[in-house]
Amino acid sequence: EAGVAQSPRYKIIEKRQSVAFWCNPISGHATLYWYQQILGQGPKLLIQFQNNGVVDDSQLPKDRFSAERLKGVDSTLKIQPAKLEDSAVYLCASTTSPERADTQYFGPGTRLTVL
Amino acid sequence: AQSVTQLGSHVSVSEGALVLLRCNYSSSVPPYLFWYVQYPNQGLQLLLKYTSAATLVKGINGFEAEFKKSETSFHLTKPSAHMSDAAEYFCAVSDHGTGRRALTFGSGTRLQVQP
User: Does B40 reach chain A within 8 Å, measured CB to CB?
Assistant: First the structure.
């Protein structure tokens, strides 16, 4: 089966510019996650969706980050305006259901560089 | 809140030697634990997971991990390292809040395999 797709793979922007990332989860996966992975650190959750509803966005910097999951399938993560500290890899993951034991399948990530 | 500590940000072994990557967890409820591997410019791939069944868990590529409740540990081992094992390894614990199923990751251990 096809894996989690993300685009673009790489993005370089100036600070204060806007950027958007796209994720297409594995078909049939109801739960979708966005993680931020700063260089040298483990991924950190930004937001969790169940179908098209938000389950947890407690760690999303809402003054500049936004995310949506239209129709419970694809998702978009946006940063506006970007700061230098937003330089990171943004990973999208999906699971069939929000059970604790379920395996999360990760996409290849989008590497963002903010200059 | 759950947390994971990975001891050693870098581990170097010779090809054919034992691989031991350390992970200790903190959780207020019985944990679900995961080991993921990340190759350069790729997403995370599941190696194995512990979900309260057998304490010795076997994964892909010859890796295994043993859950030790008394030591709050979930160390990853492989009897004989291969050059292709060089990558970053992340230990993670599954969250257990209502509806929340995100993973809390350790900071990662970079494994180098010397010829």
Answer: no
